[in-house]
Write a structure and sequence with these properties.
66% helix, mainly alpha, DarP_sf, 2 domains, RNA-binding, rRNA-binding, cytoplasm, Diphtheria Toxin Repressor, domain 2, ribosome biogenesis, 8 helices
Length: 187
């Protein structure tokens, strides 16, 4: 006896191999693992399901290797129900912000170094930032030069960096506006 053919067209069925499914699940787990180091404010911007959010927070507290591996697998399982695109966007944005932060620190370091080599840079800094204590700035520059000359620990060199840092603020973090989460203060 012949079997009846089903009326379903074969075009609507998408075949996925077991290997593809496993690689997708592994990729989601890896993506979930990247969320563990983020702080609560950054996680709140993603509007994750409560269960996933709680699993990520719990993973931060786990120290045993076996338990950490199980928690990461659990996070990977929960990630199956989440759209990974906003997470990828946030991680890419944070990587860019990290680059901006590094560029800002390098800018401060170059300014400090140029202050030690060119007195005009100190004058320009004072002109650009009239609230700076001129005497303190010049003394830090002198002491940093003396430390370098005598090969002593760079205490004034670090203090000069801190002073410059007060007057040249870190660039704002665009795109990380946090919508007031209700449960953030419970812990």
């Amino acid at each position: 006896m012949a079997r009846p053919k089903h009326d379903l067209p074969d075009d609507d069925i998408e075949y996925v191999s077991k290997t593809e499914m496993k690689s997708e699940m592994t990729a989601l787990q890896k993506l979930g693992e990247k969320l563990i180091p983020l702080d609560k404010k950054q996680l709140a911007t993603l509007k994750l399901p409560e269960r996933l959010y709680d699993a990520i927070i719990a993973a931060k507290k786990i120290t045993a290797n076996g338990a950490t591996a199980r928690q990461k697998q659990f996070i990977g399982k929960l990630m199956r129900d989440v759209d990974p695109e906003p997470i990828n966007e946030l991680l890419a944005k944070l990587a860019g912000l990290s680059d901006k932060h590094s560029a800002w620190l390098h800018r401060l370091e170059r300014l400090r170094e140029s202050m030690l080599t060119d007195p005009k840079v100190v004058e320009n800094f004072v002109t650009d930032h009239p609230t700076v204590e001129i005497q303190q700035l010049r003394q830090l520059v002198r002491n940093a030069l003396k430390e370098r000359e005598l090969q002593k620990p760079a205490k004034a060199f670090r203090e000069l960096f801190k002073l410059i840092k007060q007057y040249i603020p870190e660039p704002a973090l665009p795109g990380l506006e946090v919508s007031a989460p209700e449960e953030e203060d419970e812990e």
